[in-house]
Amino acid sequence: MSAITSRYARAFADVVFEKHLDVEKMRRELHSMMDVAQGSAELRRIWENPAIPSDQKQRLLGALAARLEISRPVRNFIAVLIDHRRIGQLREITSEFEHEINQRLGFAEAQIVSARQISDSEKGEVEAQIERLTGKKVRAQYVTDPSLLGGAIVKVGSTIYDGSVRGQLQKIKEELASA
Q1: Residues near 46 by beta carbon (within 8 Å), at least 6 away in sequence
Q2: Cβ distance 128 to 140 under 8 Å?
Q3: CA atoms within 13 A on the CB side of 74
Q4: 9-65 pLDDT, tens digit each
Q5: Which of 4, 20, 93, 110 supports an S-S bond with 140, CB 3.0-4.6 Å?
Q6: pLDDT digits over 63-117, tens only?
């Protein structure tokens, strides 16, 4: 992430923690706003257009926030992004905010890519193993990729654990090529 997106994400995380706001509520509301902005090209054009007066953008934001029942802190944060012409980076800022919040709360972020859908009990087992490895609570995202053939790839931070059939076949191929 860029220094700019990190700066905005850290600033919002600071507000959330300093004001003792409900972290999960702030996260959900920020995602709601991001989903609406990403889903409407017209809304993005209005918010990103420097020719449209700021007060009109703010009125639109206010109406949208009221309709979605978005709290004042999230509404104000979005207003700052609009005023500073950073609303186009909302997805990146939201992602960086997630990362910042997880770090502050002591969570390890894990991405688990598997060949098939993983059951809830399997998810619990995988997350327990990651917790033992990292010594942190885990926030996991699950993705399905049939090209793995079987097994899974787990990414925690910059560390990748490849337990996929595709990965094992690749390792065998490399060993055979070097022999």
Answers
A1: 52, 56, 57, 60
A2: no
A3: 24
A4: 999 999 999 999 999 999 999 999 999 999 999 999 999 999 999 999 999 999 999
A5: 110
A6: 999 999 999 999 999 999 999 999 999 999 999 999 999 989 988 888 999 989 9
- Same domain? 111 vs 99: no
| 26 neighbors 73 (Cβ within 8 angstroms) | yes
Rounded Cα–Cα distance for residues 98 and 92 (Å): 10
Residue 118, token pair as written in the block: 């993983």
Specify the number of domains making up the chain.
Answer: 2
pTM of the model: 0.75
Domain identity same for 75 and 32: yes
DSSP-derived letter for residue 155 is E
Pairing between β-strand 107-114 and β-strand 152-156 as defined by DSSP bridges: antiparallel
Find how far residue 81's CA is from the centre of its chain. Answer: 17
165 in the same domain as 127: yes
